[in-house]
Every structure is written in structure tokens, then in C-alpha cells.
Amino acid sequence: LLLTGALLVGCDAASSETTPSAGAPSPTGPRTFKPGAAGAGDPYFPSYGNGGYDVARYAVKVRYDPKTDRLTGTATVQAAATSDLSSFNLDLAGLSVRSVTVDGAAAKHSRKGNELVVTPAHGLIAGNGFVTEIAYEGKPEPLENEVLGEGGFLHTDDGAIALGQPESASTWFPVNDHPSDKATYDFEITVPDGLTAVSNGVPAGKSDADGWTTWKWAERQPMASYLSFVVIGKLRVTTGEHKGRPVFSAVDESLGKGAADTSIADTVEVADYLETVFGPYPFDAYGGVVVADSRIRYALETQSRPVYSASFFRQGTNTEVVAHELAHQWFGDSVALTKWEDIWLNEGLATYAEWLWAEHSDDRKAELTFATRYSGSPSSLWRVPPGKPGVENLFSQSVYQRGAMTVHALRVAIGDKAFFTLLKTWAEEKRNANGTTAEFIALAERVSGKKLDALFDAWLYGTTRPDQPKPL
Ligand code: ARG
Ligand code: ZN
């Protein structure tokens, strides 16, 4: 990510201080402009994201009519080149591109599968900011993923849901679709009157014209693209304010008022508890959205406002799932992944937060939850190393439960004082940024003053059950 300030270095592109060396010319030689890479280089998902630029901000305006299932949109992408570019890619799945401009001038565009290739009239110089605007339209379709299930835009009975991990955004707007390139987002979503369109961040206004309502949302903290979402439908909305921040929650109206509403209403209480263990809540808004479409079988930590499948609340109030998704606001969202392989950093910490919440709210000790999982987990869990799960096990029980057991083993090893300092320091030092497992281990060693390689080797990378944790 480069924030807006970085765009101002544009005129200094020739100075070696602000110009990354990749693709930069010698001080006297001619520049060579090359196409930006079609992927961000993630070993698990090589085609996700792109190379050669860094997005600072997206402004996405879409109009969607559930009756016809057609979407028309414009996306304005403010970025900075990180190498000398003759062309660059954005990820866009399906949909037709009408026109593209770069810095206000018409640009050539072509499609290669889910890649949009933009060739500006002139090369883009490393370090310089640029703005590209894409006009597009069509019938959005989700992306199939054989092992992980589909992600992205789904047409529902009366609206739509765009949601998914590890990818979803490219099904409704052109995007650098990898968590390593965080950016701020402004959304304007126009839908027929009577429908609600809810997305990330703070509500930024609502206007009506000719039977259509435009809902505006602003996510002002950097966000990974898969954490963006929109839910359009007949929704029961609750608004409020907490600690000076807006609260905006919504539950699908087809669900009778009940456990979903009461669970989501506990959002701010859970967030306040998590602040005591993780440090300040990282975002400008609170909320939650409960969807009823049976194709959504998970909850997702969409930034500032998680989305929950109604199935979590079928047996009654469920604040553990709320604690899980809210914990991700610190770990997953504010501190985002650099590569998908490190997913345990998100899921292990969020699952451990459920254990902490259960101890706080129900007096079920985290130590007891650990003991139950340690002795009761199937052998399949011990065969999958959560620190290197492979694409097929990205969301497996090993990543979640053994990930959380790893966190607990660390707590036992370094003691509560160092452990809770570590969680707060990780959240603070990596706030609005990206982290890796190696960086987390290094910080744990720094904070505790202990050598932890054997512990992490066994818990994250071993293929058999590690020994019972003991204080180091
Ligand atoms: N990160 C989500 C959560 O734990 C789960 C997403 C599941 N995605 C999937 N493709 N299975 O809260
Ligand atoms: Zn999770």
C-alpha cells in the first residue's frame, strides 16, 4: 500500500530514494517500460493480484438491478507505479469493459481470462502516481473454486451478496485482488428504492432519484480487497453510535426478529472486551450483517462490518462467532496477511479470541478449551501443519483449532505477561499493514526474550501432535 502522500512523490520519480530499483533505469540510460506482472506472486494463488503498481484508493460506483441481474459501474483507481510500466493488469472476472482512461486519456484495454490488461498511451514511470478509470457492465457471476467453494457476486431472491475469501472483489469491480495491496475504498451503490445496500466502513450518505437509492460507504482505513463486500436486499437495519463511531447493522428481513438480532446487538460489547486484550479497536465503524441465502455457509470478517450466515444463530444467541469475526478486525484486517500460506495468523488468533471470550463471558477457561482440543482432536488434524496447510487445507480445522492451540502453547511457554504484551504489540506495530509468520515469531522472541523456534516448528510445521506445552 502507498497512501495518498506517496502519490505526491511523483515528480521525484528520477531520484533513487523514492524509486524502487526494479525496472528503474541507470541515471543516464533510457527507461525500459515493461508490462506489469499478471500476479502478485503469492505461492498459493499465483494469479491473484498484479505486479508493478500499488493502489492507494478505489472509488467504486455501481448500479445494480436485481430484476435484471445487471450491474453497471465505474471504478476509479488511484495508484502509484512501482516499476516502469508499458501496461498493467487489474483482476476482473466476467463483466464487459466499456472504456478505460489513464490520467484522463483514453487507454487501450484487452481481456485475458480474469485479467484486464490496460495499455496507457504513454509508459508509467516508477514512483509516479496515476489514476485509471474503468467503465464496465454485465451480469456478475461468482468465481468457482474447486476446493474452497465459490466466492464473489451472488444474485439472491431480492438482491445480491458479494462476499468471499480468498477472493471475491474482482466479480464486481476491477481490483488488484491480493491482500498485500491494501487501499482505502469509497463505494456508491445504487439500487431500486426499498432495498438497502450495505458495505464497509462509515455510512457516507444516501440519496434518491427516479426510483433509485444510492447508498454511500467509506472505508478510510486501508483494506485488503477480499474484505470488501456488498449486501443488497430487504434488510432490517439498526443504527447507533458507540465511542463516537457509527454502528450500522442489518439482518435479512426474511428472518424473524430473534437470535441473529440479539447476537449482532452484542457487537460493541464484544469489541469493548477485545480491546482489553488486543488494544484499541482499529476501525471507524461497527456493525454486522446477517444474510439468509443458503449458499453462504460461513461468516466473514469483512472490514468494520462482518457478514454472518443466518445459520450461526439457528440454535439461539451466538456471541462466539461475533467474537471470532471481531477478533479478525485486529488480526486479519488491520494486520493483514502478506501471503495466504500464513492464514493461521488470522484464524488461529481469531479462534483463540473465541476461547478468551468464552472465559470472559461464560467462565469456561481457555486452558480447559485447549485441553479438550489437545486430547480430543482427530489424527487428521495433527497431520496438517497449520503454518503450511496447502491450498486444499486453507480453511481446515488444523488452521483454526491447531492454530488456536499454537497460540495457547505460546501463552503457556512465555507466560501471560509477555503473551498479552505480544498480542497488543503485534496489533499496534502492524496496524493498517501486513505481517508474516516469520515476523510474528521474531516479535514473540523479542517480547519474551525466549528462543521459540522449537515451539513453532512443532506446533506450526510438525505432522504429529506436539508435546504438552510447558513454561520455558
Ligand atoms: N475467514 C472466515 C472466518 O473464519 C472463513 C471464510 C471461509 N471461506 C471459505 N472459502 N471456506 O471467519
Ligand atoms: Zn476466521
Walk me through the structure.
By secondary structure, the protein is of the alpha+beta class. 26% of the residues lie in helices and 29% in strands. It has ten helices and 22 strands. It has an eight-stranded mixed sheet. It has a four-stranded mixed sheet with strand order 1-4-8-7, with no helix packed on it. The chain has a four-stranded antiparallel sheet with strand order 10-11-16-13, with no helix packed on it. A hairpin with a 2-residue loop joins strand 17 and strand 18. Helix 4 crosses helix 5 and helix 5 packs across helix 8. The two termini are 38 Å apart. The site of zinc ion (ZN) has 4 residues, from helix 4 and helix 5. One of its GO terms (molecular function) is metallopeptidase activity. Keywords: Hydrolase, Metal-binding, Metalloprotease, Protease, Signal, Zinc. It holds the Pfam family Peptidase_M1.
Distinct ligands: arginine, zinc ion
Q: If you compute it from the alpha carbons, what radius of gyration comes out, rounded to the nearest whole angstrom?
A: 23 Å
Oligomer: single chain
Strand content: 25-35%
Number of helices: 10
